[in-house]
Structure formats: C-alpha cells, structure tokens
Amino acid sequence: MSDVVAQSPRKPTRWELVAAGAGSGALISIIDFTKNPNDGTIFKLANGLGKLCFPSGSPPPGPSPILIAIFFVVLASLFVCWLFELKDRAEAFLRSCALLAAFSVVTPGTINQIADVTAVQGGTLLTKQKSSSLIFESAFAANGQPEDDAAPAGTAYVVLKNLQNMAVMPESIVTIRNERSYEPISIFRIRSFRIPLVQTYGRLFRIQIDTPGFRSIEFSLRVREPIEAYGIRAPETALYFAVQAMASPLKVELAPNEAEQLKQNGRNKLIGDNIEGAISQYIKSLQLADDDAETKHFLGYAYFRAGQYAEAKEILSKLNLDFPNSSLIALNLIKVKCGLKDEAVRSQLRSANEEWRKDWSFDGEFVRICNQYVD
C-alpha cells in the first residue's frame, strides 16, 4: 500500500492578499456611499479630495470626486496590505475596513444643514395622492444658515418639468454648493416637482438635483429679483443613484418660467390680502399655461376669498372631479358651498372622509364659515 500524503492548503501569495485588500477597499467604499450618499465617509472624503484636486472650484467633466475618493481608498488599501505581512484574505478585508474607519474619523463633515422638506404646494397637493396638509410650502434657504438674516433675499422656484404630471411624486435630493469652492453648503430632500430656494441677492450657487429614474443635473443660480421662476428637464435613466454619482452631473441651463412666476406673485399677493391682485396674476398665468390645475385651484380659492362664490364653485367643482383624492380641493369647495348657504353641505360633511374632517377642523376659515353645518 502506498502512503497517502495529506496536502496542506496553498497559502495565498503576497500579491494575491494585496489584490484581496484592494478589492475589499472598493467593496466597502461602494457600500458606504450607497448607504450614506450625502453624509458618509466616501462623501466627506470626496469633498476633501475635490477641494485638493480642483482648488479653482468646479471639477471638470469626467470622473466625479466620488469616484476619485473610491479610487483613493483602493490605492490606500493596496499600500496598507503590501506594507504589512498578511496571513489570509480575511485579514486583508479587515485591514481595508480599519482604513475606511480611520478615514471616517479624520475626515471632517462639511454639511451645515441637512433637512427633509415636504412640499404641499407642489406634487402632493394636486396629484391623485391623499394630502391633508393645509399650508403653503416654505422656501428653503440656499445658503443654509445665513450669517446675516437681514440681508435682502429673493426666492427662486425651480420647476422639474419631468415630474410635473407624475401621479406618484419621487423624492429628490437637492445639494447646494458654493460656486467657487464647490463645497457643499446644505442638502435637503423634497417630494415635489417644484423646488423653492431663498437666496441672498447677487450670490452665486451651484445646485445639484438627484431624482430616481432621472439623470443627476447641475446648474448655476444667482437670484436678482424678489421672485424668479425657472423650468428644467432631466433625461430619464435606468442607472442607480450611486452609479450616477461616480460621474459628473449633467450641466443644464435654466429656462425662465413666466407662468410659474405669475403664479407665485399671485400667491404672495393673496398672502398679503391683495385678493384682486392675486386674481389678476393667476388669470395671466393661466393665459400662458391653461392646463395648470394648481393655478386653477389657487384662482378658485382667490375667488372664494373675494366673495365671488359662483366663479369659485365652477372652478373647484371641476377640479374636485379630476382630483377626487385631494383633501385641500375638497375643503375649499366645501367652504364655497358654505358661503353659498347650500344646505346640501350637511350631508356631504357627514359622508366625507373621517381623516379629512379631522384635518379640516383645524382650518380657521372652515370653522368660521361652516360651523353651523357641522353636526
């Protein structure tokens, strides 16, 4: 009988372990960025490397700072795994994890403000979703936390035309950067086709918008008037957000949106109780965009405020048929009928959505005008 000689497993070569460390560095970097695209280690490292590699400001077209940061981690993993005598692939992986953890500690955060903004004047108001909010959207400060709150500022409304008629509104991530240094100033999430930005007059910012299903886009913005409005489009894409972020955003040009500007002028006049002025602005806006249901809704409500109940009822009744799941349209139509002293309101209130009725009870106009019809 021949002796059976047990063969021990082949030990990986040094270069195989180095390659394993580099692969591990790439893997954990991608995982870190995918899980925390706006405040993770890779994002912060990319910001630092971006300022180091592109001191003049905006990076040129090509690989983004995110891709550069991932490549940097891979190179650092290669060096660390080559420097130390590794025993196996598991140790190579752990070395790469420790390296990323070290970068996390030494890389400073750069975001002054991260917020979630739910805009109710935009997508959730008139789409076929249920919305119980009864307030206008508030504009987001483009300069994060301004040093001088008294500095004169205007508001720019940027309309994402790709999202304007979507039934289910996706969540967009908006990144506001310093135009010169390209350093992120603030980040917020918004579920609306319209992004309101408050900006100090004359200051120049770089705005990046990331929306699922669409290319990441970027544009420069400088506000010079109290109210400005623009429209932009982003090409559709099947690429995941984290993959898109490895390339530079698509640079787009803002196109003036006069209909939106007139609408927002009307909204400001209505807030200031200049009802006739608001009606005039809404009518002019509809002459440019006669299919804008939101402007029609605002006009119907302005007619109600002016006591022109017949005109308000005609507009809001049609909108209520088109958008049966809009709590706000239903509420304003009910208020118009209360103003007309329509006794049918009693039965309509009894059969109304219970959650809506609970929300309506907090609306001062509804309580004042319709209280006698509430059982």
Which percent range describes the beta-strand content?
Answer: 15-25%
Largest sheet features: 6 strands, mixed
Rg on CA atoms, Å: 28 Å
Across the major sheet, the strand order is 1-5-4-7-8-10
Number of separate domains = 3
Structural class: alpha/beta
CATH top level assignment of the largest domain = Mainly Beta
CATH superfamily of the largest domain: Immunoglobulins
Q: What's the CATH topology label of the largest domain? A: Immunoglobulin-like
Mean of pLDDT = 79
**What does the oligomeric state look like here?**
single chain
CATH architectural grouping of the largest domain: Sandwich
Principal-axes geometry comes out as: elongated
- The counted number of beta strands is 11
Write up what this structure looks like.
The chain is α/β, with parallel strands linked by helices and 375 residues long. The protein folds into three domains: 93 residues, no CATH class; 144 residues, Sandwich (Immunoglobulin-like); 109 residues, Tetratricopeptide repeat domain (Serine Threonine Protein Phosphatase 5, Tetratricopeptide repeat, Alpha Horseshoe). The protein is built from 14 helices and eleven strands. The chain has a six-stranded mixed beta sheet, with no helix packed on it. A five-stranded mixed beta sheet has the order 2-6-3-9-11, with helices on one face. Helix 2 packs across helix 3. The protein is elongated.
